[in-house]
Amino acid sequence: MMAAKPSPRPPALQCRSCAGCKPRHMSPAREPTGMPMPKQTTVLIVDDEVGLLDEMQVALTREGFSVLVASSAAAALEACTTRTDIAVALIDVGLPGMNGFDLIEALTNRFPAASRPRTVLVTGQGSVDMVIRAIRIGAFDFLEKPMARSELIAATHRAANSWIKGGL
């Protein structure tokens, strides 16, 4: 029996403005988790940076998620109001109008805990204070840009599994 060739590591996802962070991009990415996921779990990506939004959408679609995108907090709130199947919302901190923290608070105030999407806050300017604030307002997870595809996929799987189980 032939041994399978190891698959090449996926490149990191990065925003256009982080060209100076090459060492992190060249570090080895974590392997995909292989976590189970029900078919067609819906993920909402909220980011005003179109290039990164597209990359995240492609990565998660290839992983088997059904992906919706929004470029503003207002569009994200509308999507969450009209759709009840959104399990995970990946939310950029720096959104026009309403920032990512305010969007998470709005989702927390509008929807019961068991049915609202699990939120993963995403930022290119992370700090310990930002992580603490995200946890305090109810974010499920926190990702810093640039991120490896495997980090994005693992965080999305964890959040989706929590939503499916109905726990926070």
Layout of secondary structure:
Layout: E1 12-13, H1 22-26, E2 42-46, H2 50-62, E3 66-70, H3 73-82, E4 86-92, H4 100-110, E5 118-123, H5 128-136, E6 141-144, E7 147-148, H6 149-165
Parallel strand pairs: 2-3, 2-4, 4-5, 5-6
Antiparallel strand pairs: 1-7
Helix pairs in contact: 3-4
Please describe the structure with a list of short key phrases separated by commas or semicolons.
168 residues, five-stranded parallel β-sheet, Rossmann fold, two-stranded antiparallel sheet, alpha/beta, 7 strands
Word description of this protein:
With about 170 residues, the chain is α/β, with parallel strands linked by helices. The chain has a domain of about 120 residues: Rossmann fold, CATH 3.40.50. The chain has six helices and seven strands; from the N terminus they run E-H-E-H-E-H-E-H-E-H-E-E-H. The chain has a five-stranded parallel sheet with strand order 3-2-4-5-6, sandwiched between helices. The protein has a two-stranded antiparallel sheet with strand order 1-7. Helix 3 packs parallel to helix 4. The longest helix has 17 residues. The radius of gyration is 16 Å and the shape is globular. It starts with 11 loop residues before the first strand and ends with a helix. The N terminus is likely disordered.
